[in-house]
Every structure is written in structure tokens, then in C-alpha cells.
From TrEMBL:
The protein's name: LssY C-terminal domain-containing protein
Pfam family, one: LssY_C
Organism encoding this protein: Nitratireductor kimnyeongensis
LssY-like C-terminal domain: residues covered: 69-247
Keyword tags: Membrane, Transmembrane, Transmembrane helix
Transmembrane segments: 12-32, 38-65
Superkingdom to which the source organism belongs: Bacteria
Amino acid sequence: MSPIIRWIQRAFVFLIASATMWLIATQVFERIDQRVPLFIALLITYVAAAYVILPIIVRVSAALLRSNRIPRVTRASDGLPADPVNIVLIGSKEQLLKAFSTIGWSPADRLSLRSAIQMATCFVLDRPYPTAPFSSLFLFGRRQDVGFQQCLGNSPRKRHHVRFWAANADPEFGPDDVAFWTRGPRIDPSTSHIWVGAGTNDTGFGLQSMTWQISHKVDRDADAEREHIVAQLLRSGCIEEHHFIEAGGHVATHFTTDGRIFHAQLSDIELRE
């Protein structure tokens, strides 16, 4: 990427960030502060900014600045770097689901009020929830398309897990259409896709260091989780033609990783049975 394009992108991001801060401070906080006490106004503003406004801004920015490179890290809803990208699998969604089913991993439920309550209950009471939901991370301007997990113990407190995004699944509509921002891409289960994944190991619950949002604590050794997933897929014959590739662009992250991404072709497991 040329320096001119890079500076244009930085200026664009700065303008979006400035406009977002102006929107939160003048259009959200001031309007609420006129109607309710200061503490409640601040609380409502925080919730609106962290869980409504910023996720939309992140998706819009990522979609407009999207490039053909595989990013090094995913992004949280507040735009901060999150889990590192460490695995890419090529194949259909049917093959992906079959591969992780073969190695004993469960697909994650969609995050909703009901699943969140069930997860919290299972966490407190130490009960199993093998399909516990994931929080939303963003790549290519959208939330994960599918996720899998392998529980450690009798509750969702600790688990191996991986999120995947179909990199070449483009939406039906362009950015000038409202549906582009409100709908995810249509993924044909039988069509081959480039599944870009971020695998990490949850070790418990805690608070995020910068936003103080309640979240899982994550093992910072992302390479160990990558090797765990790869070893299981290789042992079961779910992948072939594997090698390592490098992601584009350096991004500061608190994870310990060599930055390499494992790349492999998904096997047709049904033909092997």
C-alpha cells in the first residue's frame, strides 16, 4: 500500500472517529442528561456507545476500507484489536461443520438474551453448556459466520474455541443499499469458501482491561491454541495440503504469537468413512 493511500485511510478513520465522538457527546449524552440524573445519563450513554453506536461504526469503516489482505487480528465491537487470526481453511460450510463435528467440537449457539442467561446460569452453577454462545468479534466488517468450541470441564468457564469468517462471501447488495449494513452475506453450504479463523483458549471470566466489559479471560499464547486445533484436524484426516502463510500488516496485540497462519484444504470426510 502506498504512503498516500495509507494517509488517506488514516484521515478517513480520524474523521469517522471525530464524528462518532461528536455524536456521542452532543446527540446522545446531552439529550439524555437533560432528562435524567447525571449518573444514569452516563450509564445509558456508555451502553449506547459501546454496544450500539461503535459496533455500527466499526462495521461501516471495515467495509469501506476492506482490502484483499488477511488481517492479523479481529476487532471487538469497540474497534480495539481482539483475537489474532491464526488459521485458514478452504472448503464448503458443509465440510467445515463435518470436520469439527468429527473432532468432537460443538457449534456455538447464536448470542441472544436467552442463550446469555443460560450461559451465565451454567457458569455460576458449574453446569455443562457444550454449545454456549460467543461474543461478537468483527472481521471483514461483520460478526463471525460460525464458531466451534471444545469444553474444558463441566461449564463454559474454560473452553477451546474458534471463530470463522467466510472471506469470499460477498453480500447481495452494495454499500449504497441499506440491506448491505443490516444483513450478513448469503453463504451457500455447498460452495467452497476461504474460512478465516481466530482460535483462542478461554481460561475463565474477567473484565476487559480498557473497556471493563464483562468477558472471558483468554490465554495469551495464541500459537498453542492454533497447534491444538491443527493437531486434532490432522489426526482425524479432516485437512490436507497444509502450510503456513503470513498475514498482511502489523497490528499491536497483547497476544504472544509468531504471526503465522495455518492454511489447509478441508478434506471430504464422508468419502473417507
